[in-house]
Amino acid sequence: MEQGIKESNKNIEERAKGPFAHFFISGWNHLVRLMGVNVLFMLFNIPALAIAFGFAIIFMPGLVSAFDLHRFISVPSNAGSVTPAETSVVSYQLLSLLIVFFIVSVVASLLICIGPFQTGFAQVYKDIRNGTSVSLFGSFKVGLKENWKKALASTFIGILFTAVIILAVSFYLNLKTDVGIIIGTVFCVLYVAFILVQNFAYNMMVTTDLKLGQIYKNSLLFLLIRFGHCLGLAVVVILFYIAVPFILLMSASYTTLGIFIFLYSFLVIAWVQYGISYYTGCLIDRYVAEDEEPAEENSEET
User: Whole-prediction pTM value?
Assistant: First the structure.
């Protein structure tokens, strides 16, 4: 009896702190589990990393030209006593780091990932948020087993749309015209928006029984209805999936490379995904769950 009262009071206190504080409290209380998810995410997505590498080989030359990245992968000719051979080696190393940035960016953002595994991780995030998590692998198995078919379809959707968007960005920005820059910028915005849609979709799979088409429809509606909040999420995505890894890798020092490996192997990916999952859960509770309740009530009355 007393234990039940204590648990009830604890839940009330957590609600009183607000969703933002509860997000950090729940994440901190399950820090080791989130770190485990981060490591497993990279391991289970090795096939996705290989696909992303293929994308890098295909699209990187156009993206380097489109975003004027030559200065990051070239060494000035007046760099002291550096020989041409050494200059070539340095340029190759910097290009390799740029490819690593591209691969980590598209995989961590779920544009290219192994969808069935991601639903397992989404189930872990859901259970952490709801306080019902028993074990990492227990939650992972539930999410994987119940949603692998829809998640597999979502995998191919992500790969296809990512290829189209990156190709469009590369093509239009390389036109070097005002119209090309405008259209290319629009596709850059769509790129970030699609990251949010994919994250919403995977989290919705483990929370609702909606069909895949309805899941993507609701994901787009979330993006439009809560545009201001989603804009904040977009800033987080750009910061941790694009800006931070780019700065760390292009600094080209052993220190920043070590920081990058530690952060993106153990912390950043899981925390960002959990943050988006937490927000998606709030949206589902507010918009989707309420829509399902009247239908349940009507079925009970009949």
Answer: 0.87
